[in-house]
Design brief:
- By secondary structure, the protein is an alpha/beta fold.
- Helices cover 41% and strands 22% of the residues.
- It contains twelve helices and ten strands.
- A six-stranded mixed beta sheet has the order 6-7-8-3-9-10, with helices on both faces.
- A hairpin with a 5-residue loop joins strand 1 and strand 2.
- The structure holds adenosine-5'-triphosphate (ATP) and magnesium ion (MG).
- Magnesium ion binds next to helix 1.
Amino acid sequence: MSKFILEAIDLDYSYSDGTNALRKVNLSIKKGEKLAILGSNGAGKSTLFMHFNGIYRPDSGYIKYQGEGISYKNKALIELRKKVGIVFQDPDSQLFSASVWQDISFGPLNLGLSEEDVIKRVKQALVDTETTDLQDKPTHMLSYGQKKRVSIAGILAMEPEVIVFDEPTAGLDPRHASEFMMLLDKLSHEGKTMIVSTHDVDLAYSWADQIAIMYNGQIVGHGNPCELFSQPELIKGADLTLPWLIEMHCELVNKGWLPSSAPLPKTKQDLLLNIPTQSNQLWRIAR
Ligand SMILES: Nc1ncnc2c1ncn2[C@@H]1O[C@H](COP(=O)(O)OP(=O)(O)OP(=O)(O)O)[C@@H](O)[C@H]1O
Ligand SMILES: [Mg+2]
């Protein structure tokens, strides 16, 4: 059995107007991994995501799910989409039923589950995305952030193995964005594999196990967050910035307030703990 749950191998894809959106993209994702795909506008993130469950078919290269190249036959695609769920960047592309409840129940109903199981899953998805009070509302009357949360609920209710979120926090207010990050942690503890695209370097740095950086249709960097963000030229070259924690760490090192050997902080607490207290400094000088 492959150690990777999902793989993109030498993917090339051009749109009908000739835009070459993916160029020899290679990416391997382990089961249970939290992968962030970082990239500026037009880098190719959404186009790559559309390949993960066969919505787009590559011009060349292929996608493997659990070690096997995916088939584009209707039946196989239906099966694949039970395993790999995508929350689209634009919630209007995802919501089409009259009410929130109907929309979220659509997927589970199509899985052929009992009515009791469908109700259980929809209720849980409503709770997880804090949309219970919206359940009877027509989807077209929701605000953008509410639509976003309902579209996330619709995929959660399908309980896929791999969940692909395209810009999930864009348009969410700070509280709902942070609740969403907690939901991702909960899903991760349940063993789900999660792939999140974002421009938010702080979010990617603090959340992800692995980060892939896309630029101009290519993966230009892939590794653990500390490894990648220790390469400022790579980050700048991809039109991204460093996470504020790393910017602050570098400033403190430059000012001599932190030894250059201090580990990169992952949280605000780490950063503060790294700063030697006055007594620490005196102790260092005395030595
Ligand atoms: N339907 C389309 N027809 C033609 N070109 C397209 C189409 N959709 C996307 N593109 C082009 O493909 C490239 C990659 O776009 P994509 O939407 O994948 O980028 P992205 O990384 O998701 O960007 P963003 O951060 O803005 O969401 C861009 O150059 C874009 O203009
Ligand atoms: Mg996109």
